[in-house]
Specification:
The protein has 712 residues and is mainly β. The protein is built from eleven helices and 34 strands. The termini are far apart.
């Protein structure tokens, strides 16, 4: 039998189930991406039901659907060619009783474990609302087969909500009679993974057909196994028929509008916005062309006469610095000998790091005397050298126009640790001390307040940085809010933990003119494979103090290990110079691992701002063009009851390179974190410029992934 959700009893701590191994998720998969569309749930499907199809690998899709008393906003990502994940925020009027509105957050996963061939369908298994309150909880196994390139049929079996219409005894009951009964779902707080209920209780069949009538129009019809029992209880929505009908029309590339007729009683629509981080929004590029390679005359390499000339080294530094500046980079320091040159550069334009190295190498062919055969390019970030890439000048001359020149250049390059590379180097003039500043608009967002699901603040931000000496700098920013409503949130914190994040709306309300941060930072290299940072001051909008970090990261290693120790004091709500009466020492041990193909894993274990102990698990998919999309979850010794709604901290994080939108080189990115709820458990300091993100981009695994841009 199937039970409807009931109010949640006293919370109990649960141990997260083990996740499927990364190796399984990354199994090779045949392309299964033709002729798919999205359902009202914002997942690949028919009208309301899922299919076994997958979106294009790495597709990121936002869907808004509206029908009767229900509105759903869904963000879906094709994590691997086989695995997809979705986060959904729903608004349901009259859900529990007439005149009430319920807001719900839910997560889905779907895995296609069989690819379609000429003789068999694609088959997928899915978990719907497996971390949430349970309103939409369901499991399914579904098969989809293309009869022609434009005509596909789908059939499946569902449990939970997808087993609620014309259900029958669970066929899995023949394996074990525990599958016959679906336990009542804990409902109200959400956030727990209740795997004991998966694939249990009554089951039901669903299916449908999709026909791509034209290149832009797809027609869909389905038989639904969801009876919408609770939604129809108030009378604002009627379930008269299990048959749903819909159409999907492509308005323009990556924008789809859908219309639906559901349950024989209501019309609805969906808007579907698709984007793929692997494909730029702007075709081509508007950046300046690199300088060509200047070839040496035959026999010129043996001429060492220049070494005796007075002032030549200084002139070479000036010429190199000028050309680098015209290409969006800066010369920090240089070492030169009759046969070799080492240049330390600061890349301020190219997010694809090999592009900066390649352009620097071509500039050196223009400037360096013919006897200089070895070019070593050392990128610096925050004044510390990250890696040393050594190239033979003759290889640069020979491979510039080769079809596989990028790969051959990488194969012949020598990439090593750069610790100590600044010894004996001469710094370029005007690099230290140096002041940079800017004024521009800012936009802050707050999500999922039941009274106002999206709140925004906007205004002007003045920010600056003063580089005192290599590895030493002061940075700060001041925000002046001009408009917004984040501070209007009326719901006060009910946290039983120290309120380290749950009073963010008060900071937004009282910090009309706010000192966002003001810090003194020192970055240095304690030794080979080691990187260190110390930051002190007003670290972020809500905390000040001292933060220190040590990172071990060999250049060629996929593994990195880090340690961070912080002393933090809570700031006054007005974000001026005062502090509140709360202080704490926090710290974490971190492990980072590059699984390959752009998948990065991270584990941080230690003490959080509220004094709780635990660990944060993060998986990101990083693309060579600078995009990254990831998810994290934090589990600490705070009970689910004490944590409050959501049970544990979790969220999605995104990095969007501006070059993806602008079509011209830029190393600037936009970072966003979407948390279903902002609670106090599992909260960390928001320290700027942590080491791993700065370091890994110039190390071998990441350089190899984007080396195709060396000759750009």
């Amino acid at each position: 039998m199937t039970h409807k959700p009931r109010p949640k009893p006293a919370s109990r701590r649960r141990t997260p189930r083990a996740m499927v191994g990364v190796g399984l998720l990354l199994l090779p998969a045949a392309a299964q991406t033709e002729g798919y569309s999205y359902s009202t749930y914002g997942t690949v499907g028919l009208v309301d039901m899922p299919t076994a199809q997958s979106a294009e690998d790495a597709e990121l899709t936002a869907t808004y659907s509206q029908f009767a008393n229900t509105a759903r906003t869904t963000l879906s990502f094709q994590i691997t060619p086989r695995l997809s994940g979705s986060f959904r925020y729903s608004k349901i009027d009259d859900y529990f009783s007439v005149g009430t509105t319920h807001f719900d957050r839910s997560f889905d996963l779907r895995y296609r474990f069989v690819d379609e061939t000429s003789s068999r369908p694609a088959i997928a298994v899915g978990l719907q609302d497996f971390i949430g309150t349970g309103i939409y909880t369901a499991e399914y196994i579904v098969a989809t087969k293309s009869v022609t390139p434009r005509l596909t049929f789908t059939g499946g079996i569902g449990w939970g909500r997808l087993g609620s219409y014309n259900g029958f005894s669970n066929p899995l009951g023949v394996i074990n009679d525990r599958f016959d009964t679906r336990p009542a779902r804990d409902f109200g707080r959400g956030g727990e993974i209740e795997a004991a209920g998966w694939f249990r209780g009554d089951a039901a069949l669903f299916g449908g057909v999709a026909w791509q009538a034209t290149d832009k129009l797809t027609l869909k019809a389905e038989y639904s196994s969801d009876d919408y029992a609770i939604e129809t209880g108030s009378g604002s929505f009627k379930h008269k028929s299990p048959f749903n009908f819909g159409l999907d029309y492509e308005i323009r590339d990556n924008i789809h509008l859908q219309a639906h007729y559901l349950n024989g009683s209501t019309f609805g629509f969906s808007l579907n916005l698709r984007n793929n981080p692997r494909h730029p929004l702007v075709n081509g590029g508007k950046g300046p062309a690199p300088l060509p390679v200047k070839r040496r005359a035959p026999g010129a390499a043996s001429d060492l006469g220049w070494t005796q000339a007075v002032g030549v080294s200084s002139s070479l530094r000036e010429q190199t610095g000028t050309l680098l500046a015209s290409d969006g980079m800066a010369l920090e320091a240089m070492k030169i000998s009759p046969n070799a040159v080492t240049v330390h550069i600061r890349n301020e334009r190219y997010l694809a790091r090999p592009e900066a190295i390649g352009r620097t190498a071509r500039i050196l062919t223009q400037v360096m005397p013919a006897s200089v055969e070895s070019f070593t390019v050392v990128p610096l970030e925050n004044g510390i050298p990250l890696s040393a890439t050594t190239l033979r000048r003759s290889d640069i001359e020979d491979l510039e126009h080769e079809a596989d020149g990028s790969w051959q250049t990488y194969a012949r390059a020598d990439i090593e640790d750069a610790a100590g590379s600044l010894d004996g180097a001469t710094y370029h003039r005007d690099q230290y001390p140096k002041l940079t500043w800017s004024v521009g608009p800012y936009l802050n967002a707050s999500y999922f307040d039941p009274d106002e699901p999206v709140r925004l603040d906007t205004g002007l931000r003045l920010q600056g940085r003063y580089d005192i000496a290599p590895g030493w700098f002061i940075s700060g920013s001041i925000e002046q809010r001009l408009a917004g409503n984040i501070g209007d949130a009326a719901r006060g914190s009910n946290s039983v933990l120290p309120r380290v994040r749950s009073e963010s709306s008060i900071y937004a309300r009282e910090g009309e003119t706010a000192l966002e941060h003001l810090t003194l930072a020192h970055y240095f290299r304690p030794g080979k494979d080691l990187y260190a940072r110390v930051t002190a001051g007003y670290l972020e909008s809500q905390f000040g103090g001292v933060s220190s970090e040590l990172l071990w990261k060999p250049v060629a290693s996929r593994l990195a290990l880090g340690a961070e120790v912080n002393y933090a004091v809570q700031r006054d709500f007005d974000q001026r110079f005062g502090f509140r009466d709360y202080e704490i020492a926090t710290g974490h041990l971190s492990a980072y691992y590059d699984f390959g193909d752009g998948y990065l894993g991270q584990v941080d274990a230690g003490r959080y701002l509220a004094g709780d102990y635990g660990a944060t698990f993060t998986l990101d998919r990083v693309f060579a063009n600078g995009w990254s999309i990831g998810a994290y979850a934090t589990f600490t010794d705070v009970s689910f009851d004490d944590f409050g709604e959501g049970s544990f901290d979790k969220g999605l994080r995104f990095t969007v390179p501006l070059s993806h939108v602008l079509g011209e080189p830029s190393d600037k990115t936009y970072k966003a974190v979407i948390q279903p709820l902002t609670r106090d458990g599992g909260a960390r300091l928001k320290v700027r410029n942590r080491l791993y993100e700065s370091v890994r981009g110039y190390h071998t695994p990441e350089l190899k992934d984007s080396w195709g841009r060396f000759w750009r």
